[in-house]
Amino acid sequence: MDGENIAIRVRDVVRELEGMLLEMFPRSIEILANVPGDTWPVRGDPTQLHQVLLNLCVNSRDAMPEGGMLTLLVKNVLIAEDCAGRGPDARPGPYVRITVTDSGTGIPPEHMDKLFDPFFTTKEVGKGTGLGLATVAGIVKRHSGFVGVQSEVGKGTAFEVHLPAALHAGEQPGTEQVEPSPRGRDQLILVVDDEANIRAIAREVLLRHGYRVLTASDGREAAAIVEAHANELRLVITDIDMPVMDGIGLIGLLRSRYPALKVIVSTGIQSTLRLGRRDDLKNLGVETVIQKPYSTEAICHAVHGMIGGEK
User: Fold this and answer.
1) Cα separations in angstroms, 244 against 100, 174, 191, 255
2) pTM summary value
3) DSSP 39
């Protein structure tokens, strides 16, 4: 499995996510999280688990444009030897099941078999979340788990993430938890992304951790903001695929005009870095890449690694 492999208290991950959602989502969406105190630990990468759940919650929000109920329910379950109907990745044993349920528009029956196919989406261009369901399922599978879904048009959708419980004798969940996310020193950061929800999440996370934040929806808008704030701007976090001027074009412009300005690239599309873009970024001197949707830990550690000691 790529990433960390540590004992995770699911309760901690869900509670942190709940706090972010309460700040980010409209008040028309009621958020309820139910995590029993006796929830079993799991093993894996807490950042990746956070990304999976955040993506599912953002999908639920988008399915409730007029508002509704979003529920995160965590439960210890035992999967019986007969796993028929639970999918090819299901195995018998103890699991922690995290269910993300919304009261939204639901998923048409003809789409259900395609949900986890790479690049499948029902959203308009620019309204994706940066992390498709195929990637969600892949992350969960790498954690030896599996994902299920139930939906009814007009009534809502429930995604069930099953992760194997870590019940080894003597294991103490949380003893290897990462340190609290580092804080900034009032430095000014520009976040560039054509997806409004990604901009909003990044902005709120960075504001909560001691930074000042500006945002832009494309490279051209970002260039104008950089020019206006060049004397105080310390870092640009930019997406790759954007209209008007993409991330590669923006970084090239910044390198020519503001060579000392630091840049982090964000992407949720694995192919973006395979189709020649990795070489482009290397030639532009960009080494730090973070995956969308952002987790608090991932973005704060990346930013701190770039400008942590600066004012």
Assistant:
1) 35, 45, 16, 19
2) 0.60
3) P
